[in-house]
Amino acid sequence: MEKVSRYKLLEATIEEEGEEEEEAAPPSPYAPSVAWESPLRKKLPDPLSELAAAAPFYRHSVRLAVLSCRPAGPSAFTARWTLSAVWPNPWEGSLTLTGVSTLAVDAAGTVVAQTDALDDVRDLRFSVYDQIAPRFWDLYHLLMTPPAQRLPEIPLDAPLLAPYRVYEIPPHASLVATLPDPGRARRATQTLPMHAFAAYIRTAGNPAQPYYTTGPLTVAIARRPDVLTWRVPVPPGVYRAARVPLGETAVAGDAPGTLERNAYT
User: Fold this and answer.
1) Distance in angstroms (rounded) separating the CA atoms of residues 17 and 240
2) Of 150, 152, 155, which is closest to residue 39 (Cα–Cα)?
């Protein structure tokens, strides 16, 4: 358990670097000569140093959430994570990367090797551009409602000339809420989406209030019993603030709803 908790320091260190706090950051869980393999940019010796160096470019909006960590051998672990940042363009596009890291540790729990793999196996530049490129509503609502988080959409095979797309969303944390279905005439399915914007948040100006965006919000209509189920992806910044323990099972909190992890939406 000590080795797992040391990996949790990744989140805390990024939080410290991102917010420019004067308090000393936790000690790095990485060995000085760590062997690091990753599809992300690698100019510095370890992931924490790389993310800390990138923080000013992203206006210190970098957030890392470690969703789970499980043993992968006598001295190895597999960790699932979500990394997010706000791209520094006029419409402040939201960038989200998800993936898995395999870590090797020594007897003291120090990480001596790490191999990263992104869920989206497409070219990284295409995946980034697909998220930060402006769409019609991004420009229409400029300075009013910022672009929502866009989880990577991994294309799957679909029938030729099909009028729809088939894709997979990587495992992520979701807030799940349910409500007995009062019937179609009551239009209860739109309750949560309609209230998602019923908050007064200063998204621009000086000073702008801190906030996080998310998406996609989904709803399922079940019969027998008649129940509506909403799933709202939890952004890394909110997930970090909740201090959810590492693990693979659902975690119930004091707030209404249930936090699901590693569930496809």
Assistant:
1) 14
2) 152
Angle between helices 47-54 and 9-19 (to 10 degrees): 20
Tell me the pLDDT band of 195, cut-offs 50, 70 and 90. Answer: low
Question: Cα–Cα distance between 132 and 127 in angstroms, integer?
Answer: 9
Rounded to 5°, angle at Cα 64 from 81 and 168: 40
Tokens of 90: 């006029």
Residues composing the chain: 265
Q: What pLDDT digit, counting tens, does each position of 129-146 carry?
A: 888 887 777 677 666 666
Tally the C-alpha atoms within 13 A of residue 175's C-alpha that lie toward its C-beta.
Answer: 17
Q: Which pair of structure tokens corresponds to residue 71?
A: 């043993």
Q: What are phi and psi of 19, to 5 degrees?
A: -100, 0
Contact 83, 236 (CB under 8 A): yes
State the Cα angle at 205 between 85 and 134, rounded to 5°.
45
Strand-pair partners of 179? 228
The residue among 45, 39, 15 whose CA lies nearest residue 238 is 15
DSSP state of 28: P
- Residues 201-259: pLDDT tens digits? 776 667 777 777 788 888 888 887 889 998 888 888 888 766 666 554 333 333 333 44
